[in-house]
Model the fold of this input.
Amino acid sequence: MKRLSVFILSLGILIGLLIASKYINFNPFRTVGEPIDTFHNVTVYYNGAVNHVTKRNTAKDGYNLGLQYQCVEFVKRYYYEYFNHKMPDSYGHAKDFFDSNVKDGSRNLQRNLIQYTNGSSSKPKVHDIIVFRASWYNSFGHVAIVCNVSENQLTIIQQNAGPFSSTRVTYDLEEEHNHWKVKDNYIIGWLRKE
Done:
């Protein structure tokens, strides 16, 4: 009985720490707002806890870039600075970037980008926005930019992946019957400027 009590207490502490890590920066080596990476001269900033919000970031012309240091803010800032692209719907969580009603290879009108489903006949390309579905830990989903593609892998650059996570992550990419699949069950698709 004592072992069960210790197990339940330990599990409760672990769950409590996981929940707290969504709101508290546990990384003493980084400061919120610190530049930690860059891609095509667009900076990735450290955000600390994944649910941390400082303020809304807007461009000089008033265009909404998103909540400062969140993943959406980096992706929209990248597309705004690199492509001069403004999304018709400038609001929404990361998971809202992918519209399940849009067919593979068709235009996502909210983002004014071509949308591809994970498992598309179109291989992901550098600059594509990768969209992750919501998870138990992050109910808002996640977005990132493809920064490198090889024959069987792709690498993303991301902002706000967590206090100890890397800004760059590589995933296996597999072609089967002329369809490309990024080997991660949370990736639902990608968006492309054409």
